[in-house]
Amino acid sequence: MTNSILDLGNDLVAFGVERVVLESTSDYWRPFLYLLEAAGLKVWLINARDVKQVSGRPKTDKLDAVWLAKLNERGMLRPSFVPPREIRALRNYTRLRTELVEERSRHKQRLEKLLEDALIKLSSVATDLLGVSARAMIEALIAGERDPKLLADLARGRLKLKRAALIKALNGRFDDHHGDLAQLLLDQIDACTSGVDRLTAQIEQLVADLPKPPPPSNREHLADVPIDADPNAARLTTVERLDEIPGIAERAAQIIIAEIGLDMSQFPTPDHLVSWAKLSPQTIQSGPRVKAGKTGKGNRYLKGVLGEVATAAAKTDTFLGARYRRLVRRRGKQRALVAVARSILVIVWHLLNDPDARYIDLGSDYYTRRLDPDRKTRDLVRQLQALGHHVTLDPAA
Question: What domain range is 161 assigned to?
């Protein structure tokens, strides 16, 4: 209980304890970390994977505590990233919003499955099952309308051009019990939508109230990524500057800020942030053989939004889109998306590390402009000769 933890903190301070080490176990570490920090103690949260007991030794809570103390004394531990209080509050809102969006998607899938059970093939004609037209047809079905022609007349916009297909799709066996279940699912979807809208408004306010980012700790890496310092950048908020990166919209920028914070001193270099996010594959070496391992699980909320952002950026005519198309041919879709997500996270690190930085796109022809013409010519000539041709070069004027 809270009082017991407060008493523990007072006792540790009285004993002159300098550091408390906690093993990360589900959410049980949270009250200890927050309350002991409030008592003036330095608290380190340690990944349980890094402090496994030596095999062959008995395992009890007391022995685990002794083992943590020994590792701490010898400097063999590294603390996990725990964001400040403001970022933790923002993170709770963004994570709940993500979960409500996922829950709303599941309810949509249940509604589609229910319509399929009633032989209503509306999703095969309408792109959005809960668009204005499709929603009106579903509500009419719930109200008791069964005539496919009258239901098809509820179409709006370009869906009117598909009236014949709608009539066929709406000819099913939708009865009263389907209507009751469909109404229940619509109510759940509306409740999730209302919750998402409420959370979004609160998130926007929390992001606006965040303290100003600290001055950049170093600028030695700024030449390695497509960003530039602009005196007008101070007029833009952090979300607006992140929004300039292809693929990142306001919602994605809010989630990224909530997951990694604004203070990049926690991550001395972009590589530290990429490694923490599990976007860099492990290197596995055994003798002369070296192979790349898996990237790992990492923060599912951050990796999820970076995957969405990378997928959107891959479709653009930008530097990131060109990078995806360059990699996908020889590395495959999944690895190319991970590489683009890593590039985006590196750019985000630089933008957060330097409040005056702005994203400057290098252009979709970046790699073409960096080609060495002589080397490319030699490669092409060598390929033609391998096919049995004699090549004579006649330089253009």
Answer: 86-208
C-alpha closest to that of 230 among 320, 363, 362, 355:
355
105/107 Cα distance (integer angstroms): 5
Residue 242's nearest CA partner among 94, 97, 99, 352 is 352
Question: Structure tokens of 321?
Answer: 């889109």
**192 and 259 together in one domain:** no
Q: Which two tokens stand for residue 156?
A: 């709006």
pLDDT per residue as tens digits for the range 9-54: 888 888 988 889 988 888 888 888 888 888 888 888 888 877 776 6
| Length of the chain (residues) | 397
Cα distances from 7 to residues 3, 36, 143, 264, in angstroms, run: 6, 10, 62, 34
Considering 52, 80, 108, which residue would you say is the last residue of a domain? 80
2 Cβ neighbours under 8 A, 6+ residues apart: 31, 35
The residues that bridge with 109 in the sheet, in sequence order, are none
Shared domain check, 228 and 167: no
* 122: nearest Cα among 161, 157, 159: 159
Helix (H, G, I), strand (E, B) or coil at 358: strand
| Cα(10)–Cα(40) distance, integer angstroms | 9
Whole-model pTM: value is 0.82
Cα separation of the two ends of the chain: 84
DSSP 3-state assignment of 392? coil
207 CB-near residues (< 8 Å, 6+ apart): 90, 237, 238, 239, 254, 257
Q: Which two tokens stand for residue 188?
A: 């759940």
Cβ proximity of 259 and 279 under 8 Å? no
